[in-house]
Amino acid sequence: MAGALNAALADALEQDPRVVVLGEDVGTLGGVFRVTDGLAARFGDRRVVDTPLAESGIVGTAIGMAMGGLVPVVEMQFDAFAYPAFEQVTSHLAKLRNRTRGAVALPVVVRVPYGGGIGGVEHHCDSSEAYYAHTPGLRVVTPATPADAYRMMRQAIACPDPVVLLEPKRRYWSKEAAELTADGPALDEAVVRRPGRDVTLVTYGGTVATALEAADAAVEEGWDVEVVDLRSLSPIDDATLTASVRRTGRAVVVHEAPGSGGLGAEVAQRITERCFHHLEAPVLRVTGFDIPYPPPKLEQHHLPSVDRILDTVARLQWDDQPEPCPAPYGARRA
Amino acid sequence: MTPSSPALDGSVQERAAAFLPPGDGPQALVDPTGSPLPSPLAMPADDDLLALHRAMVVGRRFDTQASALTRQGRLAVYPSSRGQEACQVAAALALRPQDWLFPTYRDSVAIVTRGVPPVEVLTLLRGDWHCGYDPYEHRVAPQCTPLATNTLHAVGLAHAARLQGEDRVALVLLGDGATSEGDTHEALNFAAVWGAPVVFLVQNNGYAISVPLAKQTAAPSLAHKGVGYGMRSRLVDGNDAAAVHAVLTEAVAGAAGGDGPTLVEALTYRVEAHTNADDAGRYRDPAEVEAWLAKDPVSRSEAHLRSRGLLDDALAERFAREGEELAAGVRAALEHDVAPDPRELFEHVYAQPTAALLEQRDLLLAELEEEPA
């Protein structure tokens, strides 16, 4: 996936002279995850800029650059390192178009490597999507595959709105071959990754692969599981989501961010509101615990696993299900 | 190529000295009585002095009118810049047409001087919308309410101009309080590292709402802060329009010529309270206000121009009349409230409204239809 993102940045830099890449260590080093590897050598240090170590400064100057006619793609080195830029993102990047009645468009892409599963230390593994998705004016997207990483990066750069592009770190090194093209589903479309008839797993980013694995394993249990990859967390593609759950009648939302106040609650509410008469069971969630991101040796307990997803699917009031009332937070027992 | 460790040897001291504000106190060209002062600064041309004076007279009338409209309930709030007219008009008049101004909420007079129609400036304070003008039309960014955040926008825009090979300078207005914010630090640092064509004008008016400068900083002056960033710094009498204009014009020319950014601290005073909702009597002595009124920028400029024979009664009356005409126009325009269209709430959030926003708009419209007109 890192390679696909790199190719997308290179192609955008090549094709549009307004595109500039900014961030900490993005130039000579090529980024701590090598997503910008080779770009400074190819496009020069005026277009691929090693900035001072200051995230608010990076986003704030990117806003000014966009006002001045450029298309900045900025890197926040890690999820939790993006918080110093929060005011610039929420109070200005998200609002300037609205503030100026549409006169000032800010086509800025904020890249945030996010999520855990890589054995990272504290402040390197947060899932910060809910903060951004709660902010009107931002588009928030996250790719789950290399093909989507390329496509969504290109589409995000071409988008007239500011886009927070959340890159699931644990998929950076996924090697699956992919045709790299900007064509395909639009930036705000969800896709069905795996069709199924019995239950819909709704997920995004780093947990899409986990959900697909769970769906494969569920065949043995006799469940035909559909997996919907949301891709866009703001706005949410209600049409794809609703169509899937109306077909299957059951839904589980999976994400690794803490459950409370998380995006899963938003998705579950949307499903309940739009699919109530099609539902055979309450919508359940499999999420990370409501804890600060755990240390590396404990993160496997925190992250949604195939087993936890299957346990939760088992609680969706199937006819042979002995315990009809699900515990809150999916399969976890108090 | 590893830089050697920066010991404070002769060369470091020399470089630091080059960034320091020249002289002991603030640079000035005209004293409070209107008499010219000896100064290495170049006195602006007569036309510029008259333009500054005219803009101050008109700007003060605008400010007075806006304050009055607030008392009448026609504006929701108005942060007056009375007493800061020299900084306000010099900031606008030191810029060339292609340059950009990045103002805060207290800088309405600067924006009016830049040419934005007064009614559009007051849209924010009237409560109709967050910004009433198109920033690209006069190259004035929206008035910034969270302080210091606009410093970074100015640096970005200025740097973008350089990357695109365009001759464009950004001048950002901030106050003494905003110099404590992290964004100001980051902006000064980015600007210096990039050599961006940007001018920071700190209007040090003594107070951040109620907090005096002594509780804001322990620096010898705010201009001294520029030294640490490797940036030219200037300290100027902020009630001397001629001096502020001279310093800013030089800074703008330097930025345009590739010399990078300048930090300018202008010493001035906020004569009115923070806003109409504030009570300045709770935190400052009336005697202090009186002392500053004696240093009023408008009467200082008038005395100077009259002593030089550049201003007579007829011209002074003409400037006053222009101010009255502007004030009358503002009163007429604001006489009747124009109800903002609630549909607009959903229009500009994204380039195209999302499906969810269209649903929410329809919900609101249905509610409004049910309401009696």
UniProtKB/TrEMBL annotation, chain A:
Alphabetical list of InterPro entries matching this protein: THDP-binding (IPR029061), Transketo_C/PFOR_II (IPR009014), Transketolase-like_Pyr-bd (IPR005475), Transketolase_C (IPR033248)
Enzyme Commission (EC) number: 1.2.4.4
Transmembrane segments: none
Keywords, sorted A to Z: Oxidoreductase
Entries under Gene3D superfamilies matching the protein: 3.40.50.920, 3.40.50.970
Enzyme class: oxidoreductase
A GO biological process held by the record: response to nutrient
Transketolase-like pyrimidine-binding domain segment(s): 1-174
Molecular function GO terms recorded: branched-chain 2-oxo acid dehydrogenase activity; magnesium ion binding
Entry cofactors: thiamine diphosphate
Protein name per its UniProtKB record: 3-methyl-2-oxobutanoate dehydrogenase (2-methylpropanoyl-transferring)
Species this chain originates from: Vallicoccus soli
